[in-house]
Amino acid sequence: MIQRKTQNPEYWGDELVISSEDLQYLSTLLVEDELPRSALELGQALILRRIRQEEALIERALSQGTLYQPKKHYEIGDRVVFPALGYRVGEVLGVRLGHNPEYGTFQVIQVSFENGKQREFAAEFTHDHVLNRDSDSGSSGEEALLSADELVERYAEQVAQALEKRLEMEPDFVCLAGQWFRRDLLVNVHEGHLNLAEAALDMAGGGPLPTDALLGDLELPEEITPQLRVFSLNYALQEDGRFDEVGPAGEVLWFLRSMEPEDVQSTPVYLRYQPLE
Fold first, then answer.
1. Contact residues for 155 (Cβ-Cβ < 8 A; gap 6+)
2. pLDDT for the residue 137
3. Which residues pair with 123 in a beta bridge?
4. Which pLDDT belongs to residue 135?
């Protein structure tokens, strides 16, 4: 029986660790598409990548030897693949007789691995054992293997939560309105662009204006996707104190801070908190 870690709920839960290789893959994905993505979308892509990696590992390992099952017969020199050990490949160095009062006699093989370590495993053990089952499905009562789409549907939310926590600690990634992108790959929005945006808002009475309305006068590179141009401009405006994002949830609208009413720029006296002992 081939044991896939990706089929285990704990693999996507407490055992999940977002590696630097994962972040590099997601960075490449963002760059290739030039599209900022949500943590959920990135989580879905990460799940699919982990599944592909595991299938490639299984295929590569099985091409180097025989899948280990306790019921099988092995001879000295055989190369054996052990799924429970992360698909490590070992070579049979010896075979001896084994005996257990409960199960009777069977064979024991001595196996050497590439790191020099040796271990022993049961062979010709014909009793019921989870590793002796030829099907990819589990024991009676368990479901068959989940497809990639089913794994994504089941675990994408919790993977997205773990991924978001990791991305928040990475200075190379920025998040705006729930979308993530690489900081160093944003479109260059310089001071001249920001001055033009300020002038456009000033002519509109301070705003509010959506980001698309400000892009027309800035002449950002046309070869860049519209989504990335909007994202980059939003980030630049957010970092400049002249601009205030005033849109409702799910909508980005910009206003000139200098033209906002006084009560918006400072906390009204009746709402100012005075700490009490």
1. 9, 12, 47
2. 41
3. 107
4. 53
Contact 197, 208 (CB under 8 A): no
- Cβ atoms of 124 and 71 within 8 Å: the answer is yes
pLDDT value at residue 139: 37
Q: How far apart are CA 126 and CA 122, in angstroms?
A: 10
Cα 238 versus chain centre, distance: 27
Mean per-residue pLDDT over the chain, rounded? 86
d(CA 237, CA 257) in angstroms, rounded, equals 11
Q: What one-character DSSP code corresponds to residue 79?
A: E
**DSSP string for residues in 163-213:** HHHHHHT-TTEEEETTEEEEGGGS----HHHHHHHHHHHHHTTT--EEHHH
Task: At 34, list the tokens.
Answer: 């030039």
Q: Token pair of 12, please?
A: 């996507």
Q: Which amino acid, 263?
A: D
- What's this model's pTM, rounded to 2 decimal places? 0.72
Give the separation between CA 20 and CA 82, rounded to whole angstroms: 27
Q: Say if residues 23 and 135 touch (Cβ distance below 8 Å).
A: no
Beta bridge partners of 175: 180
pLDDT at 141 over 60: no
Here the tokens at position 74 are 């092995």
Instruction: Answer yes or no: is pLDDT of 185 > 50.
Output: yes
Is the Cβ–Cβ distance between 142 and 133 less than 8 Å? no
